[in-house]
Specification:
Strand 12 and strand 13 form a beta hairpin. The chain is of the alpha/beta class. It has two domains: 224 residues, P-loop containing nucleotide triphosphate hydrolases (Rossmann fold), CATH 3.40.50; 184 residues, Nucleotidyltransferase, domain 5. The strands form two sheets. The chain has an eight-stranded mixed β-sheet, covered by helices on one side. An eight-stranded mixed β-sheet has the order 10-9-16-13-12-11-14-15, with helices on both faces. It is elongated, with a radius of gyration of 29 Å. It starts with 5 loop residues before the first helix and ends with a helix. The protein is 40% helix and 20% strand.
């Protein structure tokens, strides 16, 4: 058998790659980007979910991913050309927030089909209609049109509809007028262009809970496949099988350190929406964001704040202090958080004095309670919810630490939240200012997201404490009667 030259080996390798690209979208994306595209596990997952669409299966797919993780390059810039090359009689419509972005999708797919269509699939562009945003396949009925939201697609139909980033930015997504405009475009225009058996792909970074995906989840009768990929995994049943806390794509530099810094930079609310794909309402379902009040330890700290208005100095004397614990654990990686809080009251005001929050096992939880008790000796009562792992904690510590009180919560979580919400609304609840306790931002986000958020451990601990402090405080009228002997 003759020895192959280097060029012959190279050509055989290219032919093998071409054959793979002809057979699967996963390999097609790599092939048509000439070595400038690298697959990661999340892009491979997406490619696998899109393959059935190219093979004729009707699917409705939502893709929710953080910025700069390759969602548009993988889907909107590449999949239409693959789909049409395999189905040259089909029609594709892509839509985005602007004509410019949509035109880019059209141009990049046209270029791919023009270069690789003849080689891989024996199809080519039409010479008659080949503009950037509206092109056809020669001698076939298939083609692609790209438009901005609200653009003209009169007379056009779609076997595949791709909506990629219908909102330009947070300002647009936070505008109810623009959200309504996007929804009206879906209801009255885009969805009416779907041919029988058509597939739909919606690709977004989430900005708002009432955005297009939010409304589709709430109102659409279609059977949507939801591909939600947060920057940092927070689910035990993560689509990619990630451990809780594992990043989506550390290979691109989006690792745990990046996540910490980015969250600090953009704030908890933006992080939850834009990067975790878990937007929370600005107002909140039960707890309104604007209800919270803040304190600092002294006047010099207050004077250094950029906006000290409304921020109070913590009273020197706190009348009553308690601990409140929500204990749920299985192991340190995949369990819910264990939360311990110290609350105090003075007159009609309630102050969150400290908090410990982490994923812990039983020995670690016991150590945390010991440490909190040593740090706050005046918090005599330690309320521990008498469910999940609470009884085990009490049993192990009751001979060592005094004041451990099991709590059998009355009603559900929402009932307890509604019971204490008036305290926040009245401005009676104070948190340490975020400048001295950055973790407060996460707490506010969790309360605002409740009961629809991912976690509620801080809510459980806080509502438990506030209910107990209210019970312990005497009625102002009773104190008045006691002081003056009046009935």
């Amino acid at each position: 058998m003759p020895t192959l030259t280097a060029n012959q080996r190279k050509e055989l390798a290219r032919q093998a790659q071409a054959e793979l690209a002809r057979r699967s979208f996963r390999d097609y994306v790599e092939y048509v980007h000439r070595g400038n595209y690298r697959h990661f596990r999340h892009t491979e997952y997406i490619a696998g979910e899109l393959e059935p669409v190219a093979n004729g299966e009707q699917r409705y797919i939502m893709i929710e991913m953080p910025p700069r993780h390759g969602k548009s390059m993988t889907v909107s810039e590449s999949f239409p050309s693959y789909y049409l090359a395999k189905n040259p009689e089909k029609r594709v419509i892509t839509a985005s927030y602007s004509d410019g972005l949509a035109r880019k999708f059209g141009r990049l797919n046209r270029a791919k089909l023009e270069e690789y269509g003849p080689e891989l699939f024996d199809v080519q562009l039409s010479d008659v209609n080949a503009s950037q945003n509206n092109w056809d396949i020669a001698r076939m009925n298939g083609g692609m049109i790209s438009t901005g939201i609200g653009g003209s697609i009169t007379g056009q139909g779609a076997d595949l509809l791709i909506i990629d980033d219908p909102f330009k930015n947070a300002e647009a997504a936070n505008s109810s007028t623009i959200r309504d405009k996007v929804w009206d475009e879906w209801e009255s225009t885009l969805s009416t262009r779907l041919h029988k058996g058509a597939s739909v792909i919606v690709i977004m970074t989430r900005w708002h809970e009432d955005d297009l995906i939010g409304r589709l989840l709430e109102r659409s009768p279609r059977d949507w496949k939801r591909i939600r990929m947060p920057a940092i995994s927070e689910d035990k049943d993560d689509l990619l099988g990630r451990e809780i806390g594992e990043p989506l794509c550390a290979e691109l530099g989006f690792d745990e350190q990046w996540a910490e810094e980015k969250k600090s930079e953009v704030g908890s609310r933006t992080w939850s929406a834009l990067y975790q794909q878990r937007p929370s309402p600005a107002g909140g379902a039960i707890f309104q964001r604007q209800w919270w009040r803040f304190y600092v330890p002294d006047e010099p700290t207050r004077s250094r704040l950029a906006n000290p208005e409304g921020v109070v100095v913590l009273p020197r004397i706190i009348e009553k202090q308690i601990q409140s614990w929500d204990c749920t654990f299985k192991d340190s990686k995949t369990s819910d958080f264990v939360v311990g809080q110290v609350w105090g009251s003075r007159d009609a005001a309630f102050y969150l004095l400290d908090q410990f929050r982490n994923r812990m096992n039983l020995p670690e939880t016991m150590k945390a309670i010991r440490n909190m008790t040593a740090k706050w000796p005046e918090a005599k009562a330690k309320y521990i919810e008498d469910k999940a792992n609470g009884p085990a904690v009490i049993q192990m510590l009751e001979k060592e630490i005094t004041g451990l009180i099991p709590v059998n919560p009355e009603g559900g979580k929402e009932a307890r939240a509604n019971a204490v919400a008036p305290l926040m609304e009245a401005g009676n609840v104070y948190l340490p200012h975020p400048s001295i306790a950055p973790w407060v931002n996460d707490l506010i986000e969790e309360f605002t997201s409740f009961p629809n958020g991912k976690n509620d451990d801080q809510v459980d601990s806080g509502t438990q404490a506030l209910i107990k402090l209210q019970v312990k405080k005497s009625n102002p009228l009773d104190r008045y009667k006691k002081m003056y002997g009046r009935r």
